[in-house]
Amino acid sequence: MSDIQTSTVSDEGFESTSQVGDFNLQIDALGETGPTPNATLVATYASCFLPAFRVGGQKTGNDELGKVQIDADAELDDSDDLTDIEFNIYVEADLSDDEFAAITDLAEDICHVHDALKEELLADITVVGDAF
Question: Do the beta carbons of residue 130 and residue 93 sit within 8 Å?
Answer without folding.
Answer: yes
